[in-house]
Amino acid sequence: MRRMPPEERRDELIAAAIRVIARRGLAAATTRAITSEAGMPLGAFTYIFGTQDELMTAVIDTVIEQERFAAESRAIDPTSMVAALRSGLEGYIDLLERDPDHEIALLELALVARRRDPAGQMRAQWETYYRAAEQVLVYAAEITGSRWTQPVADLARHLVVVVDGLTTTWLADGDSDAARRTASFAATALVAASAPLGAPTEGSTRAD
Questions:
Q1: To bridge 89 with a disulfide, which of 15, 20, 101, 183 should be the other Cys (CB 3.0-4.6 Å)?
Q2: Helix orientation angle between 121-144 and 100-116, rounded to the nearest 10 degrees
Q3: Residues 6+ apart with CB under 8 A from 49
Q4: Is 51 helix (H, G, I), strand (E, B) or coil?
Q5: What are residue 153's phi and psi, to 5 degrees?
Q6: CB atoms within 10 A of CB 40
Q7: What's the pLDDT at 76?
Q8: Which domains, and CATH codes, for the chain?
Q9: 63-72: long-range contacts at Cβ-Cβ below 8 A with a sequence spacing of 24 or more?
Q10: Tell me: the pLDDT tens digits for 98-137?
Q11: Cα torsion for 18, 20, 25, 28, to the nearest 10°?
Q12: SS3 148
């Protein structure tokens, strides 16, 4: 086996875990199966992660960060908020098309977490999604010279619901054109909760 720095080995173990979970489910994602998938000795796992829970947390964090980066990297049209939101959602759809295993793994982790700990683990996973959605919304406002007229936390929840629906529906039917139409519809709906910077707030008055 070729020598590699710990960070590269960590990335390969995460990628291997995603593949194993997506193909065979979380129950099959043993340390032996993951290291075998990565082409590493069993001892590499404990050297990098220590426990399987640490690896599963790293899987969730890694996939969410990739999704956020995909959304932000596509939200580059500063001409309007709707264009920024639409292209951000389309960036996510691009990622979903390119590597659906990521989303299958996250869904598998979420369902198992819900069964094991109804009040905790799945909620924590979705709170991570909410934070990532807030970052995307703040970024979209910054690049378009806009502000949100409703609490960003509320809007982030709406965005997560949209992305959840896009994900499960696309995994069911693979209809990317329909997914992009839904993204456009959602962007138009969300933009109603924004305004240009400097625009008067609701209830404010301007002197003549």
A1: 183
A2: 140
A3: 10, 13, 55, 58
A4: coil
A5: -60, -40
A6: 19
A7: 61
A8: 1-50 (1.10.10), 53-196 (1.10.357.10)
A9: 63/18, 63/102, 63/103, 63/105, 63/106, 64/128, 64/129, 64/132, 65/132, 66/95, 66/102, 67/92, 67/95, 67/102, 67/132, 68/132, 68/135, 68/136, 70/94, 70/95, 71/136, 72/135, 72/136, 72/139
A10: 888 878 887 887 777 777 776 677 787 788 889 889 988 9
A11: -130
A12: strand
Instruction: Count Cβ atoms below 10 Å from residue 59 Cβ, excluding itself.
Output: 21
Q: Which residue has the tokens 């707030």?
A: 201
Give me the residues of the chain with pLDDT under 70, please: 1-4, 64, 66-77, 118-119, 200-208
What pLDDT is stored for residue 7 in this prediction? 82
Amino acid at 190: L
Q: Is 25 left (phi over 0), alpha (psi -120 to 50) or beta?
A: left
pTM for this model (two decimals): 0.71
User: Taking the CA of residue 9 as centre, how many other CA atoms within 13 Å lie in the half-sphere pointing to its CB?
Assistant: 19
Total residues belonging to the chain: 208
Q: What are the tokens at 110? A: 């979420």
* pLDDT at 180 (0 to 100): 96
Q: Quote the radius of gyration of the chain (alpha carbons, Å).
A: 20
152 phi and psi, to 5 degrees?
-60, -35
